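Supplementary notes for students who missed Thursday's class. We covered one full example, reproduced here. Read the sequence, then the structure, then the short commentary at the end.
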Amino acid sequence: MSVLEVTDLNIRFRQDGATHHAVRGVSFSVGKGETVALVGESGSGKSVTALSTVSLLPDSAEVAGSIRYDGAEMVGASEAALRKVRGNDISFIFQEPMTSLNPLHTIERQLAESITLHQGLKGAAARARVLDLLNKVGIRDAESRLGAYPHQLSGGQRQRVMIAMALANGPELLIADEPTTALDVTIQAQILDLLADLKAREGLSMLFITHDLNVVRRIADRVCVMQNGVIVEQGAAAQVFANPQHPYTQKLLAAEPSGGPEPLADAPEILRTEKLRVWFPVHGGLLRRVTGHVKAVNEASISIRAGETLGVVGESGSGKTTLALAVLRLIASEGPVVFMGRDVQGLRARATRGMRADMQVVFQDPYGSLSPRMTVEQIIAEGLGVHQIDPSRNRREMVAEIMAEVGLDPAAMGRYPHEFSGGQRQRIAIARAMILRPKLVVLDEPTSALDMTVQVQIVELLRGLQRKHGLAYLFISHDLRVVRALSHRIMVMRNGDVVEAGDAAEVFANPQSDYTRALLAAAFQGVE
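Structure (token representation):
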């Protein structure tokens, strides 16, 4: 028996007189108690298909075909009929809980709002239901969390709250749109286990949307592979993984960073720290005296040579990014920071200005780090003016050269960031750093928000640039598959402490700490 039946679904968007055909002739079903995964790269039509189930698309969308929930037609249904289904029978979990949760309301208020609206529960009854939901999704000491705001919770806790909100009214179908993409591997494993447990306990059906086939392998009964708005292959998950028929499915399954970094030659040391410490003071009392410290980084000693990559791994809050900011001299720290033979610890901002061109950073979200008001040419060339790099050379020519080097068409330099895909935007961010010919590049989760096929491309690009220019990389990530493909050495951090460090191959083959073993188990479960 099918809970959801989608037949010949077509979705078009009208914009500026043009029509974009986003979904074309899509048909699939979700059975009772079944998990169906919609898989594909960004822009394949996965999320649009999911949103169309209860008519959550914008007014510019034209929907044709049939979407039947428990036999009732959703396409063309009245607003009253749709409201009855939304949140009650069909619930959504979205990718980024911080954009779905109200930052001004407590967790209790946000959960109680849905319960009051749909079930009419108020006061003590609503509070009891909220506590039951929080306990059900594994929020520890749930009562103490009722007054917390979203920013006071970790990423995993926020996602658990989102799942609690989705379950609040006892839905029959749960639609999860990339619910684990932004999470650490261990938290991702916990959320997937939680969803599987809830599905079994509550008798849920699930439509799971993702670009990560390793997630699909763990959770799905059946798989529908989408490309350019069309389902190109569907079938039982085990069958599709064992014997993929369509070239696109084969490409997705093969899209995992492979191999390892270039062999390391004898090269000069670019960066060294010795027992680096970053402690943030905690102020309390009437006079705001220092009452303690948040120990973000404890005695981290690192060394990176030219052409070498040090991978820094650990969960959110482990101190990875804080360590990078300290190395870049963007936050205060204690302990020597030796960059290209010079201890830069304690130098004033003016004294460090001359070395800024030699140390660059590429961030996780290029859309957030690229100015939407500047063209690609202006973004990439900005550092040339700031640091007065080769003032005699034509800057437009320099931008064209670096764009070609990172795999971008120089003819697109007059366009703006929103006109590019996620992978292309990350290439722009890399070009902005590389045009200065730095010695050290800090890469802070540069692939975590990208599709698997794009991840492979970016890894290959970074390897090529390192090989060509002898770059030293400080590579921060929670994705151990990417870390393994790029890193010569690895440092594992937890709660500010370095729990393990050594040669990458050795750490992967023979991890010494329980925490490293847990990370590896979460990252490669069901893969190797």
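Commentary. Residues 96-170 form one domain. The chain has a mean pLDDT of 89. If anything here is unclear, bring it to office hours.
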